[in-house]
Amino acid sequence: MNMTSSTNKPSFLSLHNSSILISVLSSLLVFSCISGHNVAGRRIGKGGIPSSTSKTVSAIFVFGDSTSDPGNNNFVKTPFRGNFPPYGHDFPNHVATGRFTNGRLVADFVAEHIGVKQYVPPYLDPKLTIDDLKTGVSFASAGSGFDPLTPTIISGVLPMPSQLEYFKEYQTKMEAAFGKEETKKLVKNALYIISAGTNDFVVNYFTLPIRQKEYDLPSYINFCLEQIRQFMQGLMEMGARRIGFASLAPMGCLPLVITLNSDNAISKRGCIEYISAAAREFNAKLEKELHVLQSNSSFHCSRIAILDAYTSTFDILRNQKFGFKEVAAGCCGTGIFEATFLCNSKTPLCSDVSKYFFWDAIHPTEKAYGILSLAIQPTIDYLIKD
Question: Would you call 354 a catalytic residue per the annotation?
Fold first, then answer.
């Protein structure tokens, strides 16, 4: 794959392409215990550790977008779902759970690694038992973002503040079942994963004129960081202490983004540099913001760490590692525009999904998610260690 962009300067999408992007990208993905002023830096690793180093992690809680939604959108009034074939093609019994991939998500691999469960279920699933709930759930909703405008573009999805409200509701259920003290311990000893932000840029800022008229890119990043600050403070006020926050991946390398921005979507499949550059700028500011939050935190023994989605993803795409032969198109259909309802039971699939980094034109395959989960394992182990 040519990682050099064929479109280096912002050439904002035509009205036609904007409509396609809103419709198809709607479900997009997209520091130590305080003692005085000692703050841990970024803990990013490239290798995997075979098992968790913690014996005290109680549960896993996940917030975000389609990169971490295991099926919450199945239970809200939105057309943007992944609960139909070929999604779930390699999940046990080929069940299309609502995950926007062929199998498991990063959060599923992390949950198994820390020993709490094999699959993180959607909180809104009415079939969940109290035991299912006790070891953790995902509140994530495909199509969501930190900018309040983003989830209104993508009809019916759960805004980030609503995900926090559901977490509050969750705690009330746990208190009724196990009492306040046990619930407090459960919440304190849990691991928290946050994965969102891509939709704010790819679906919102770079597509619609609304935010562009209000903010230049640096100002918009600052605006999103303010929303993140509020979200993080709310989460920590509810008891979260071990938080992994995923950075943005190289958004300009998403197959659909390439298709809609390339000079020639068929022959020029290089990443769109100005969009990936926005991710790098955001990530740098995010790290500083989380460092400040950790340093100034009045919350006892909190740990916050960046889960580096950018470096690992870019390295794989650039060098075509781990047997990936196709990194500019997905396995579903042509792979250059099919996603959500355009990737369906009538859409042909590639012959060997193991050679594809992307499942559809937006979301990675289970294999890709598994490899990315290995890259962040040292950071996860840092967060949950005793």
Answer: no
